[in-house]
Structure formats: C-alpha cells, structure tokens
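Q: Sequence in, structure out?
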Amino acid sequence: MGQARLFGSVFAASSIITPFFLGTVAGAIASGRVPLDGTGDRWSSWLNPTSVFGGLIAVGTCAFLAGTFLVADAERSGQHRLAGEIRVRALAVGAITGALVFAALLPLEHDAPTLSDGLEGRAAPLVVVSALAGAATMYLLWRRRYAVARLTAVLAVAAVVSGWGVGQYPWLLVDEVTITDAAGATATLQGLLVAVGLAAVVVVPPLAYLFKAHPVGGVDPPLVCRASRSGGWLPSRQPPSGRSSAAAGPQVPRS
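A: Exactly. Output:
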C-alpha cells in the first residue's frame, strides 16, 4: 500500500509539473525572452506573466481533457458514483481554465504583443472554435453525454494548441528567428518527410488495430468471488449490471 501511494504521488506530481513547465517554456518563447544566442535571463525568462499563465492553462487543459476521458471510462465500466465525482471535478477544472484563458488576454497585450496580435488576427477563428468547443464540452458533461464530450474536448484542445502556433507564426523564436530561417537544407527536409510518412504507414495501422481489439476500459470493476466446482471460491470481476452481486459470492477485500 505504501509503495502504491508513493507511485501515485509521483505520477500526480509529474502530471502537474510536466505540463506546467511546458507552458512556461512556450510562454517564454512567445514573449520574446529566449534569444538566439541563449543569453536570456535565468529567472525572468520563465517567471513572467505569459509564462505563468501559459503553465497554468497547460495544466488546466490537460486535467480537463483527462477528466473528460476518465468520466466516460468510469461510466462505461459501471462505476457510476466514480463517474459522478470525476464529472463534477472536470466541470470545475473546465470553468477555472476558461477563466484563466480570458484573464490571460490582458497581460498578453503588454507582455507578448506579437502573440496577442496574431491571436486577434489570423488565429481568431481558432480561438472562437476553441471557446465554442470548450463550452459544448461543459454542456455535454453537464448533460452526461460523455461519449460526445470526448470529441468536443479534443477539438477544443487542438484548437488552442494550433491557435497558439498560428498566432505566433512565422516566428520560431519570437522577434529573433523565423521558421524559414531555422529550416534545414531542402534535401534534409525531404528525407525527414519521407521518414515520417513511412513511420505513419508502419505504426498507425497496428496501433489502430490494437485500440480496436483491446478498447481501454479505464477503471477496473471490483473483484468478487465465484464458487468453483470444488467448493472453494475463485476471484473474478464484478458481474454485469442487472445480476445480483450476492449470486456471485462475497467480495474479496482489497489489500
């Protein structure tokens, strides 16, 4: 039990730290605090409004997306009480993340004007799509339409990520290096494109078959005991809904 709690704590911490610092890095680049020669300030490059908001939004986005998928898995596996708890938390995280996104618009105008101008210009349609998809996901979660909510949640996150990229275009390092300036030789790019295409052909079909053959249930139902022919008890999964758990025998206490 102690080891399980340790692993759970490490996983939970990494699930927060990783997206947060990924967001701070994106914010540092978007605000022009990462020079080409690497001589940026060691602290202000990451501790600034754009980086902090970027990190918080990244954590909220990942948590909202994970909650939307987990609530559907819990509901499908018959864990209705757990699904209800995850649903409430996902709705709360979605509301907080949405508020953070709107709150970040004001400091972006002063701290990251290049990104702000891009979001208000060519990336504006993606911003609208992300807002509509996020609101639709919240509504679907509220109405317990979990399967459809997954699709709108993915659309919302994809629109946020692509909108950030389109808003920052054509800069790789804002106000320092464009994508064209940093691009490799034409032959290198062509070879890389061929390699990616071959990898997609080799990897994607088996991966799709794997998910189709072994759908992810998300939450395992509790173990129960079933009577064996020899008169003993054998551990098994909880019987499907509609069958009495008493008919399956006493439940096995978890260690």
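The radius of gyration is 24 Å.
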